[in-house]
Amino acid sequence: MLTPAALAARVGEAMFAADAACRDFLRIELLACEPGRARMRMTVREEMLNGHRICHGGLIFTLADSTFAYACNSHNKVTVAAGCSIEFLKPAHLGDVLTCEGVEQVLQGRHGVYDMRVSNQRGEVIAVFRGKSTSIQGTVIPEGA
Known about the structure:
Layout: H1 4-18, H2 20-26, E1 29-34, E2 37-43, H3 57-73, E3 79-88, E4 97-108, E5 111-119, E6 125-135
């Protein structure tokens, strides 16, 4: 039987192996997947800039949403977003390295609430995101794997 930490790490590895959007398209890195927590990183590239020459907010949202997905699936129950919101606090610029840390706030029954914090390489918080999750049938990896 795996410990909760080992299970979360295996879940993160399995999800990331199948996550072409994060891994290949956006080049987001999975730094950690722990019980109720996750951390991901993304470097702002030229093709991520909008008409104001700052990182497109939708891509910052995607970093936060992806981190949310890993945090809420870390218990090996297939979990999806039921709702979320984001507050943009500072712009991200070309070359910035954005790290998102997500933490489970509440998990009751099939529902959870998770907070994400996106910071740049200087430790400045550029966005905060809150997601509500709902677990559905199934597991990410086979039970007992």
